Amino acid sequence: MDKLEIIKLRCNNCGRELKTENGVLVEDALVASKEWGYFSRKDLQVHSFVLCEECCDRIAASFQIPVTVTEKREVM
Q: What is this structure's pTM?
C-alpha cells in the first residue's frame, strides 16, 4: 500500500507555510506559473511561485498601475 504524501505549500515571498487541515488547504493563495518564450532571456524555462494573500496584497499595493478587481456574482 502506498503512503499518502501531504504536500505543504509555502509562500515564496515570506516563507510562511500555508494552513492545512487534514491535508486540505484552508486558506487561499496566488499560484502562478509562467512558460517563458522566444523573446525572453528565459526561453523554454517555466517559473512557478506561490504567494500568501498578505504578500500578494503588499506586492500589488506597490504597482504603478493598480490591479484590476472585478466582483463575481456566482460561484460554480
A: 0.79
